[in-house]
């Protein structure tokens, strides 16, 4: 890797033609390596003593802020010169301004409305100049982060269909992106633009010379969206038009909204360099395929990588990133899709029903995450505040909680699935968890869900294991009660459903529970396990319990419970072979998820670690699981399910 990136050391980055495929892939590997280090809390100091000068003659939010953040994260300094306060107001030329900042800087980042500004700056600057946008010319650092985004989100660009939409005449981001895509074997490259705003002939000619076939369209049709792996939108560049009338005549020609996105593949991505106007509706934001906010984040690491390379400080990170590339490429070939319960999931990961899933905002963040599916908070018939705080305490190896089933009530979550569980490619399958305060409450909610307009598109889970509601025992420990609950729900719910179970610790209890569950063929899946209750955590610095409810008693989760969770997954896999097992408990990393699969789980829930890390945990755990399966020689995760060996 170091050898290929040496070509950029000390270089001006003027246009996308300076990137070849190897450089793009190596920069991507470096960027994702830096992202991983940053997530682990690594402190960078590679650019200590180096100075960056951003010269922005045009407004910017993301490009300016990400370059400044990138330089500072790497330990460098920034000399920010506000153009309006500089000698430019006195008539100073771009060349003289660049010469001035060259005297104080190790690298200059330049944005200017003139297409020629970058060439002028490159001629007079000793320090490398990075083009952050030269009028309607190019934006090569945006193209780099776009490639990083595509490779990170899709795994590869080869064989993918890319659709570029909007003002392709003035949009410098699409000029650079189209050029870098010529380095890959895309299946198809489509241009969608209003008359008069088509991709410039100069760009089209370069693509033709590189052997890239393109197709031009006047409309962004549902059929084109259905074919796309990437829809890349860009705004109509108002500032580039000669008159307001000319701009008004074409603005809003195209619009990506939820209705149009409903035609798209489940694993495609929508990208946008931002800022957006009418061309991208906010009703797309909650869709997991909306990658443009993640795209911004990739931009930070892409620019960190580029600064390290240009300033000659990338060698050690590049070496580590290069060593990680080969197994990562092998891992991407592992198929993580799971087809169970009448649905196909992109991967086996999901949240646990008690964590980060109470509100619309939290559920939307799960939809947008890298999880394969999601489940709502276990709900009661009415809104419930739960137990008094403090009721949750993170611990070195997990957590203790006595939440008391706080939730927004059945109707809140029913309304949510009305808008999100429309089936098809537009949404992930959604699990809907209920936990009535009485048996009748549970039956009533199940009956309502059976009649819900979107009821056929959700998967019902009956939670019989909440350990933290005063006066409400864990039904799963009373076999007669569990049988009565299942009879009541089966009587009103005509579709297959699942049961969330408490942890069992005795072989006789495994046998007894399995006997009850196997008597109900409509019980299609079992979630094993809820938190291990009741535990007690003491803070001996003040001789006090860690949480308030129940005098400190609560459910234990996280790393502490992994062996118990695996035992329950395996016990019910062997005793209930016709039922799908969902594993829950102790999943911090991909290896833990792999162990759940070995024990017999088809899907794997993440709880405590999701609370600690947020929805980004799914992407990390997914990638780690994929890599672990590759090292074990599996081509698909389903091949590992239930393959646990015993000692003869």
UniProtKB/TrEMBL annotation:
Gene3D superfamilies membership: Aldolase class I, Aspartate/ornithine carbamoyltransferase
Major enzyme class: transferase
Pathway assigned in UniProt: Pyrimidine metabolism; UMP biosynthesis via de novo pathway; (S)-dihydroorotate from bicarbonate: step 2/3
Residues covered by the Aspartate/ornithine carbamoyltransferase carbamoyl-P binding domain: 12-150
EC number(s) per entry: 2.1.3.2
Reactions catalysed according to its record: carbamoyl phosphate + L-aspartate = N-carbamoyl-L-aspartate + phosphate + H(+)
UniProt key word Translocase: no
Family: Belongs to the dihydroorotate dehydrogenase family. Type 1 subfamily.
Job description of the protein: Catalyzes the conversion of dihydroorotate to orotate with fumarate as the electron acceptor. Molecular oxygen can replace fumarate in vitro.
Official protein name in the record: Dihydroorotate dehydrogenase (fumarate)
Taxonomic path: Eukaryota, Discoba, Euglenozoa, Kinetoplastea, Metakinetoplastina
């Amino acid at each position: 890797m170091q050898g290929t990136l040496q070509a950029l050391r000390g270089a001006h980055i003027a246009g996308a033609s300076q990137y070849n495929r190897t450089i793009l892939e190596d920069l991507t590997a470096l960027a994702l390596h830096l992202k991983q280090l940053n997530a682990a809390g690594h402190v960078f100091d590679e650019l200590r003593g180096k100075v960056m000068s951003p010269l922005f003659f045009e407004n910017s939010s993301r490009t300016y802020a990400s370059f400044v953040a990138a330089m500072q994260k790497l330990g460098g300094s920034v000399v920010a010169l506000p153009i309006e306060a500089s000698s430019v107001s006195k008539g100073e030329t771009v060349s003289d301004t660049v010469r001035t900042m060259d005297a104080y800087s190790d690298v200059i980042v330049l944005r200017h409305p003139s297409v020629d500004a970058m060439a002028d700056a490159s001629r007079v600057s000793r320090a490398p100049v990075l083009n952050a946008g030269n009028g309607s010319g190019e934006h090569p650092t945006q193209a780099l982060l776009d490639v990083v985004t595509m490779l990170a989100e899709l795994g590869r660009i080869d064989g993918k269909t890319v659709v570029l939409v909007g003002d392709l005449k003035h949009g410098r981001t699409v000029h650079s992106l189209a050029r870098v895509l010529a380095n890959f074997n895309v299946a198809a490259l489509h241009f969608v633009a209003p008359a008069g705003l088509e991709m410039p002939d100069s760009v089209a000619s370069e693509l033709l010379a590189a052997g890239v076939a393109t197709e031009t369209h006047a409309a962004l049709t549902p059929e084109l969206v259905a074919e796309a792996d990437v829809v890349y939108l860009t705004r109509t560049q108002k500032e580039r038009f000669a008159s307001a009338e000319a701009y008004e005549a074409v603005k809003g020609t195209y619009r990506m909204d939820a209705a149009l996105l409903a035609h798209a593949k489940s694993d495609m991505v929508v990208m946008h360099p931002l800022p957006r106007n009418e061309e991208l509706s906010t009703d797309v934001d909650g869709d997991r395929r909306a990658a443009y906010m993640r795209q911004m984040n990739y931009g930070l690491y892409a620019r960190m990588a580029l600064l390290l390379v240009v300033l000659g400080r990338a060698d050690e990170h590049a070496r580590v990133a290069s060593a990680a590339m080969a197994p990562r490429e092998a891992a991407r070939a592992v198929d993580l899709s799971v087809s169970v319960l009448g649905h196909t999931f992109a991967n086996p990961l999901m949240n646990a029903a008690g964590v980060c899933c109470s509100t619309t905002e939290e559920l939307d963040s799960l939809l947008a995450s890298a999880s394969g599916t999601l489940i709502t908070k276990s709900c009661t018939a009415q809104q419930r505040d739960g137990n008094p705080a403090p009721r949750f305490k993170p611990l070195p190896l997990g957590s203790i909680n006595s939440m008391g089933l706080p939730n927004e009530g059945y109707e809140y979550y029913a309304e949510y699935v009305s808008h999100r569980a429309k089936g098809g490619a537009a949404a992930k399958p959604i699990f809907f968890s209920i936990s009535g305060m009485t048996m009748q409450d549970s039956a009533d909610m199940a009956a309502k869900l059976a009649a819900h307009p979107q009821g056929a598109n959700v998967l019902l889970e009956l939670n019989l294991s909440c350990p933290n509601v005063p006066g409400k025992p864990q039904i799963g420990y009373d076999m007669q009660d569990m049988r009565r609950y299942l009879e009541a729900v089966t009587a009103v719910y005509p579709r297959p459903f699942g049961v969330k179970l408490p942890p069992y610790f005795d072989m006789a209890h495994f046998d007894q529970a399995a006997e009850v569950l196997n008597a109900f063929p409509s019980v299609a899946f079992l979630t094993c396990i809820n938190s291990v209750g009741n535990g007690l955590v003491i803070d001996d610095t003040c001789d006090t319990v860690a949480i308030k409810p129940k005098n400190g008693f609560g459910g234990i989760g996280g790393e502490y419970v992994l062996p118990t969770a695996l035992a329950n997954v395996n016990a019910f896999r062997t005793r209930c072979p016709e039922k799908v097992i969902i594993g829950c408990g102790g999943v911090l990393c991909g290896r833990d998820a792999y162990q759940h699969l070995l024990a017999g789980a088809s899907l794997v829930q993440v709880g405590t670690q999701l609370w600690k890390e947020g929805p980004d945990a799914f992407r990390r755990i997914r990638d780690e699981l994929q890599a672990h399966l590759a090292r074990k020689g599996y081509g698909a995760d389903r091949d590992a399910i239930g393959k646990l060996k015993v000692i003869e």
